Amino acid sequence: MGLDGGLGAYLASIAILIRRFHLPVALLPAFIVFYPAIVGLISGQDNCLFLLAVLAGWRLLEQKRDTLAGFAFALCLYKFNLTVLIPPLLLLQNRYRALTSFAIGAASIAGVSFAITPLRTYTTALIEVPKETAGFFPFGLRGLSLVIGQQWCYAVLVGVVLVLCCWLMRRLPLTEALCVAVTGTLLIVPYVTWYDSTLLVLPLAFLYARGSSRIRLACIGVLLASALWRILPTHVGAEFFVLAYFGRAIREPTDVAQLHPAPPAVAASR
């Protein structure tokens, strides 16, 4: 997509987050220099458009427009590797209508895609990604296991993170659960690149709005750490930071229940 369209999608996403979480406008420059988002945008990636699509599905869920929300999430399947925790999220949050429309949308998209391109071509492309993409190196837990030379630990860590995410998505309210879903996805999926971490602006915005002054400083530090975002441990560290916050939130519900009252539609649905 064009630079103007991507920039517009990113600014719209930030506007949604600032408005929903009542964030100070002064925080805008920190979002603007967020390395995965801006550099990915400049290099021609569609990371910002994907972020906007995820936020659209989330806002529709908050408004109890579950059928539309499911179809919105289905549109995100053009990057299907980043949607793996969306169905478990909808299931664990008891949003069955959204899950049904997501399944219908996914089946329709898959049917059209496989009618145009055989399934074998898709699977071959996935296997050959590391060879055919210049400079490709996976991030998340897959990349970490390669860096430390212990590839066996990838499956173990994925299992642990997946169980943790499912437990959190079941226990937490919708928005917090979605933050866990996008963060967990960035950790467990084997084909995740550095610019996919653009999705972290959602949990970082939430943590800034909800957290203590120390958490807010940490969020600003993550957003501004441009040089450090060039290395893999920064991504994994930021993602574990987010999950650790929500894990702590389960133990201290009074600390978690205080940001702003939930929208009337959400309060009624819970």
* Averaged pLDDT: 86
Helix and strand element order: HHHHHHHHHHHHHHHH
Helix count equals 16
Query: Percent of residues in beta strands?
Result: under 5%
| Morphology call | globular
Number of domains: 1
Taking the alpha carbons of the first and last residues, their distance comes to 38 Å
Going by helix content, strand content and strand pairing, the class is mainly alpha
Approximately how much helix is present in the residues?
Answer: over 70%
Query: Total strand count, please?
Result: 0
Radius of gyration: 18 Å
List keywords for this structure.
270 residues, mainly alpha
Write a concise synopsis of the structure shown.
The chain has 270 residues and is an all-alpha fold.
Give a description of the structure.
This protein is mostly helical. Helices cover 72% and strands 0% of the residues. It has 16 helices and no strands. The chain has helices at residues 3-21, 28-32, 35-42, 47-62, 66-75, 86-92, 96-116, 119-132, 140-147, 153-171, 174-188, 201-210, 213-224, 232-251, 253-256, 264-269. Helix 4 packs antiparallel against helix 5, helix 11 packs antiparallel against helix 14 (232-251) and helix 12 packs antiparallel against helix 13. The longest helix has 21 residues, at 96-116. It starts with a helix and ends with a helix.
Topology:
Blueprint: H1 3-21, H2 28-32, H3 35-42, H4 47-62, H5 66-75, H6 86-92, H7 96-116, H8 119-132, H9 140-147, H10 153-171, H11 174-188, H12 201-210, H13 213-224, H14 232-251, H15 253-256, H16 264-269
